[in-house]
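#lab-general

N.A. 3:47 PM
ok so I finally got the sequence cleaned up, no stray characters, all 270 residues accounted for. can someone with queue access submit it? mine expired

B.Y. 3:52 PM
send it over

N.A. 3:53 PM
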Amino acid sequence: MGFEFLIEHINDLPPLPESIQKIQSLYINGNPDTKILVSLIESDPILTADILSKVNAPCYSFSKNIVSIMQAVTLLGLSTIHGFVLSSAVNRNFEIDMTPYNVSNESFSNMCNLQSALMFQWYMSINIEQVKFLAPIAFLMEIGKVIIVNEVNNSDYIEIFQDEIKQSIDIVEVEKLFTDMTSTQIASLLFKHWNFDELFITTIKYMDNLTEAPKDVIDYIKVLNVVRKAININNILTDESIEEAAILVENLGLNKKRFLQTAIRLQSTI
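B.Y. 4:20 PM
back already:
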């Protein structure tokens, strides 16, 4: 499997469902009108069910079940809901089986939820405007792995890939070995195919290549890499991964104690 094959596969994907295209256009034009957004989401039963299942994940720790999209938007904000909408679009286009990464589908989904929750809960008090941009990226930054497993599961080297993932401490290098690309680069191609915001695409594209990243996304990537250090395929809010992430927080000149409080609180929900 090479990157040419993956690019061809992405280019053959159908456009986003009409309901999600309309929702995406609202976000492209700025913060959407909440009533219009809720109406569009509720017009799509599959999307509605998908969003409510994510909102009710334990990591958000709501005392009662969220039963309406309006409740979800009010509690989590437009940016987090945007990430859920885009994730739903991905799920509709791929049969997901994360076995090649030696994790279950449920574990992968929980990981993405936790990454978004950590970004939202930690960074909201630091920069409320930036978190509107970063929260959906945090939720979607691992989606390229879904495209990789979609190809690996249809190949004759699934066991080789699994063994490499199991033995390697650097999953990015394994991805490059098999695809000549990282999963974040692959995700950026998918989002470009679906006409996502250019800044969104660029940020994800350079997440594993900070030295070549444009200046306007470097700070975003550094913050997102804090979340990835704390929560990733191999380590999901372990004591060690939280402490390693906290060191990155300190290096950024941010409040380490505040980050640790958020991460440890999320750790208790697992």
